[in-house]
Amino acid sequence: MGGSVDHRRRFRPQNRSRPVLRELPDRGGGRCEHQPRPGRRSPAGLHWSHHPTDLPRPHPPDHPALLRAVHAAAVPGTRAGRRGSAAGPRRHRGRPRPLAQSGCGTHSTPVPLSASADRAANRRPVHGPGRAPPGAAARAGAAVSAVHAPQTVRETWIDVAKGIAIILVVLFHSVMYLEGAGVTGPLARMNPLLDTFRMPLFFFMSGILAAKAITLPFGALFRTRMLRLLYLYVVWVALQTIVLLVVPPISAAPANARPLDLLTLFVRPNSNLWFIYALPLFFALAWLIRRWPPAVQVALTALLAAGFGSTMLHTGTPWDKMGRYLVFFIAAIWLGPRVRRLVPAVRWWHALLATLLYAAVTIVVVRLDLSTVPFVLLATSVLAVTVGITVAAVLGRLAAFDWLRNLGTRTLAIYLVHTFPMILTAAVIVAVAPPLSEGVAVVLPLLLTIAAISLALAVFRYAGAVPGLFDVPVASWVRQRQPRHLRPAGGLITPPLPSPDGSGPGLSKP
């Protein structure tokens, strides 16, 4: 052909095992420190690398060209889909392949796309605009979701901390129901001492996992974090109220519950399930004040906690507890990154010193009756949260406590179910009125705690898939809508989102 030069053959890299790229426009606003350095440029406009650490920069995961390529490869109706689906991808003839990258960070890994996805970047579907074969939307949504899905890793110490907290919550309710039935032991006197430990630790863990959620638009925050909890609160308060109305008396009170409680569950929160009602309210409040300086947020909520802790503010309902514990949720949102950096440095003697200090302060507060002094309960609760974090960091490194971590991934199921066996046990004790020795009064709350947790886990295992029981009945209620510019041509099917606190499908609420 005269003096023409075949640039494709001339500038083909000699080492075919190393990736070859097209020159791609930089729309990411610059290269982050963890992205690889650009390779050398050939006269034909190709990039290639002569060293594994000198890889050229690929498209960002949300680049429109990459999304079009993935969508076209996922839909069989396109030419690239027909070529790359049934018979497999064609032989790559030296053309440069784009790379997909799993985010910008120290663990980012370039992943070559298929040859069909490469060819599809510049080809148009044969079905015409706005038309796709059956099932194309689902395949396209799955392909795009695979590019955008975040690789979340559960943090062991957080699950262990929630496991410790849920055991203490179940033990608290066990002692409370048995005491109402007339079974009083030494644990009944110790139960109030742990008020500064259980729920502050729970709310602090929830706040750590809520830091990213409050950056969402309120509509997305409501769907992905608040709606599920509000739905479960209504359903399980109704179930618990029905059971209390049916069973015999469980205490000396004239009635276990009133039908009116179903109408006032948002005004007068349920005394057992108020936590999953408080979380959506805390999410909404944190979203409203998210632009305030963190110091102002923590200071104002600390004043509120001091007011409720000293009984200067008092309603006689779970609103008092919400006012006391809001500060831990707000503080965890801003202190979470710092706590995460410090946890790997925690050693066993840190946990021991924190535990001894918390025990000494608690004894002094009880002996001198300082619980109503402003900020005393708040300071004691801060020590308790420190104890919970340090102990969880140490226990999380021991394989012998994996069972505690597993409990921390099922706290929502345990929290919703655990009171039902306690209600039935209390009803039997009140009806039969058996004589119980002091030793039985000590052991019975512990046995009831173990039985309640085991029953809750069994119910979740065999009935967890029942629609509407442990999750919303329609999955699309809690799915986040994809931005319009990221939606593929054939439609969009978004993947199921993690549980409200970002900790995965483990239903991790207490």
Tell me about this structure.
- With 510 residues, the chain is mainly alpha-helical.
- The protein folds into two domains: 7-85 and 97-148, no CATH class; 156-478, no CATH class.
- The chain is 51% helix and 3% strand.
- It has 18 helices and five strands.
- Helix 2 packs across helix 5 (136-148) and helix 13 runs antiparallel to helix 14.
- It is a multi-pass membrane protein.
- Residues 20-36, 51-62 have a biased composition (Basic and acidic residues).
Describe this protein with a few key phrases:
510 residues, 18 helices, 3% strand, globular, disordered C terminus, transmembrane, Acyltransferase 3 domain-containing protein, cell membrane
Question: What's this model, at a glance?
Answer:
This protein has about 500 residues and is mainly α. The protein is about 50% helix and about 5% strand. The strands form two sheets. It has a three-stranded antiparallel beta sheet, with no helix packed on it. A two-stranded antiparallel ribbon has the order 4-5.
Mean pLDDT over the residues: 76
- What is the straight-line distance between the termini? 75 Å
Which structural class best describes the helix and strand composition?
A: mainly alpha
- State the helicity in percent bands: 40-55%
What order do the strands of the largest sheet run in, or round the barrel if closed? 1-3-2
Biased composition (Low complexity): 76-88, 127-137, 500-510
Protein name: Acyltransferase 3 domain-containing protein
Family: Belongs to the acyltransferase 3 family.
InterPro entries: Acyl_transf_3_dom
